[in-house]
Design brief:
This protein has helices spanning about 1-10, 50-55, 70-85, 105-110, 145-150, 185-195, 220-240, 280-285, 300-310, 325, 330-335, 365-375; strands at about 20-25, 30-35, 40-45, 95-100, 105, 135, 155-165, 175-185, 245-255, 255-265, 270-280, 295-300, 350-360, 380-385, 395-405. It is of the alpha+beta class and about 400 residues long.
């Protein structure tokens, strides 16, 4: 704890860069700072904010660890999709499963390929892990949409670890896992789905404007048919995971889909968001070399589903190597439908510490969360910013931070 207090005072100057990297000689009279990820060295620059604790998580790939809760959810979704959707002739699954792509992507892949505006808030360094100005850790599996379409895939499920800077509590972690689903339709395929009349359905129309119900390029009927197929598909997945549950659709916005919506289910007396989805922006398909199709896309957060399905109270447990945790899910390693449920094996007392400090005008809370994660690792269960009377509202301001410290496998 003394180390934590001392480190806070000495490390605040690292907010601007978040770096603790090695310097290597790049030539006579010169040197460069680099970071090594998956056996590759990347040059750092003024944008770099990736931290050692995050780098250590790269390669864990919980979604590929057979019998892990995240892997169980992944396989259950894949099992349902492979059973419900077959390629022509019924001999093979319609959806190709992809789960091996590196989390290191270009900024172009993560944002530009998805038509995210240059000034969009989602590009902020406060929310993403940048390796340098051109490379980063993917913030979503959508970063691979265009490239997989370019490879010739028209229906796929892409699963991988994704990285975002976020708050610290029992449900948020800088690394989590997503499953991306994409399906593209030709006019004939959309009609063959049984929802349209071949004499009237057209995918595209000229001279139209974008409306709440559709994109400018799409016909209204085609968009509605695609949305209908998307919603039926997602309700099938939710039923396979949770059984019959109450649900609702919530209209939202994403840069890469329109119309866009989120599916929420009534679970444990609360509305639980389980997936975001929508009709893919036609520009993404065009960049992928597709001119005669229209499609949908969705993204599930597998960690959130695993915690809900198996009653796991703390996201840190998903990264545990304690046999008392792992052994509770081994029955599903071979039989993915085996009934497994987490049973608490310990609850150690919490240790609370308050830290008070002045903050500069450019301060962002995620900077502090990263500092805490860098120093304390998984020792910290929760961080709360506490306000107090008498604190000035204008910079420089005083922050009172309430840290809840608790190890999940032993006492402090």
């Amino acid at each position: 704890l003394a180390m934590i207090g001392n480190a806070f005072s000495s490390c605040f100057r690292r907010f601007g860069s978040g770096l603790r990297w090695s310097t290597t000689r790049a030539g006579a009279g010169s040197s460069r700072i680099h970071v090594r990820i998956e056996s590759t060295d990347y040059d750092c620059d003024h944008v770099t904010n990736i931290t050692p604790p995050v780098i250590e998580k790269i390669g864990r790939q919980l979604h590929k660890e057979r019998g892990h809760p995240v892997n169980i959810v992944k396989r259950r979704i894949e099992q349902h999709m492979h059973s419900a959707f077959r390629a022509r002739g019924g001999l093979s699954p319609l959806f190709t499963a992809v789960d091996h792509l590196s989390p290191v992507v270009s900024v172009e892949q993560n944002f530009d390929s998805l038509l995210v505006p240059k000034d969009h808030v989602s590009r902020s360094r406060n929310d993403n892990y940048y390796i340098n100005s051109t490379m980063m850790l993917r913030a979503h599996t959508s970063a691979h949409q265009r490239d997989l379409i370019l490879s010739g895939l028209n229906a796929f499920l892409m699963t991988g670890d994704v990285y975002r800077r976020d708050e610290i509590d029992s449900t948020h972690y800088p690394v989590f896992h997503q499953m991306e689903g994409v399906r593209l339709f030709t006019r004939d395929e959309l009609v063959a789905s049984g929802r349209g009349d071949s004499s009237s359905v057209e995918l595209f129309e000229d001279g139209s404007q974008e409306m709440d119900e559709k994109q400018a390029e799409h016909s209204l009927e085609a968009c509605r048919l695609v949305e209908c197929d998307l919603k039926e598909t997602l309700l099938g997945i939710v039923k396979a995971l949770f059984g019959d549950v109450e649900y609702r659709w919530v209209t939202t916005t994403f840069p890469f889909t329109h119309p866009s919506t989120e599916l929420e289910i009534w679970f444990n007396n609360n509305w639980l968001e389980v997936v975001g989805c929508g009709v893919m922006r036609q520009g993404i398909l065009l960049d992928g070399g597709v001119t005669d199709r229209i499609g949908w896309a969705f993204g599930f957060g597998l960690d959130r589903l695993a915690m809900a399905l198996f009653d796991i109270p703390d996201v840190r447990l998903l990264w545990s190597s304690d046999p008392r945790f792992i052994s509770q899910f081994t029955a599903a390693a071979d039989d993915v439908n085996a009934q497994v449920q987490f049973k608490p094996y310990s609850k150690y007392p919490a240790c609370y510490k308050d830290v008070t400090f002045w903050i500069p005008p450019e301060y962002n809370e995620n900077d502090f969360y990263e500092l805490v994660r860098d120093i304390c690792g998984d020792l910290v269960e929760e961080v709360k910013m506490v306000t107090s009377s008498g604190i000035p509202l204008e910079p420089p301001r005083v922050y009172i931070t309430h840290l809840l410290l608790r190890l999940i496998h032993s006492n402090i």
